[in-house]
Amino acid sequence: MQTMIEFRHVRKRYGDKIILEDFNLSVEKGEFVTIIGSSGCGKTTALKMVNGLLEPTDGDILIEGESIRRKDQTQLRRNIGYAIQGSVLFPHMTVEQNIAYVPNLLNKRDKKKTRDAVSKWMKIVGLDEEMRERYPAELSGGQQQRVGIARALAATPEILLMDEPFGAVDEITRAQLQTELRQIYEKTGITVMFVTHDISEALKLGTKVLVMDHGEIQQYAAPGEILHHPATPFVSRLADQERRMCHLPEERLDECEFSGARAE
Ligand SMILES: Nc1ncnc2c1ncn2[C@@H]1O[C@H](COP(=O)(O)OP(=O)(O)OP(=O)(O)O)[C@@H](O)[C@H]1O
Ligand SMILES: [Mg+2]
Q1: Atom of ligand 1 nearest to the CA of 15
Q2: How far apart are the CA of 109 and the centre of ligand 2, in A?
Q3: Percent of the chain topping pLDDT 90
Q4: CA–CA distances in Å: residue 189 to residues 99, 160, 186
């Protein structure tokens, strides 16, 4: 398999505070990596270094084998979709304008092409056409997040970075968005790094789960491995948490919605 994203001995320091130390990670092309860990352990920091929003203090990050330091930053961001928690929409722009804002989509000479592309993405994330002319303030939190996701996807990036994108929505909307995202992922073969606080979501969506604590990788493995063979006490606690939510004894864990489903 081809490596899409690689962190090589990355260190990140804010002032004299070290957040990541000798952080090494390889994400294969087409993998859906979910990232879970204690608050402040460096998840957002790691994600933002992938698209150059933050620079490593030391070490290197490679995309398809090439250091991002050597890549053109505009080009880099063009190939990477980034969706973050909460609303990051432009308040003075309509839904259509927000989605069409991405560089690959804006086609000044062919307005119809842009309109059609916006329609396509609205449909994929489950937004009604009637919302096209609305402003973010006229949408629910879940709808705003869908617009954010549509915008991140509309650039047809090869890599999608998502930082707790479903954090602020209710359970039903969250379940719908999870299903839609999983389908988009399966259809496009995009490489995803997805941060979440929710162990169920991490296990359900990820082909691989990265568990972090205090800037260190606790385990990086398939969901079934995390659940059945936790590598550290920290991962064990997460697995136990999931078991309690599943209400199933150990020997029947495979009946959990996700477990075993993608376990190798
Ligand atoms: N610009 C900054 N300057 C100084 N410290 C920072 C800065 N940005 C983040 N930090 C600190 O770095 C640590 C890691 O932050 P980061 O945002 O990566 O955490 P996180 O794992 O995403 O946490 P959460 O789950 O709460 O979102 C935190 O202790 C945070 O306070
Ligand atoms: Mg964060």
Answers
A1: 4
A2: 39
A3: 55
A4: 21, 11, 6
- Tell whether the model's pLDDT for residue 250 goes beyond 60: yes
Atom 4 (ligand 1) nearest CA: 14
Overall average pLDDT of the 4-30 stretch: 96
**C-alpha of residue 113 to centroid of ligand 2, in Å:** 36
Give, as one character, the DSSP assignment of residue 41. Answer: S
9 neighbors 56 (Cβ within 8 angstroms): no
> Is the C-beta atom of 146 inside 6 A of ligand 1?
no
Q: Which residues contact 131 (CB under 8 A, 6 or more apart)?
A: 95, 122, 139, 143
Contact 84, 51 (CB under 8 A): no
Residues 242 and 256: their CA atoms lie apart, in Å, by: 9
The amino acid occupying position 11 is R
Question: Which of 11, 13, 14, 210 maximizes ligand 1 atoms within 8 Å of its Cβ, making it the mutation to test the pocket?
Answer: 14
pLDDT at position 259, please?
Answer: 44
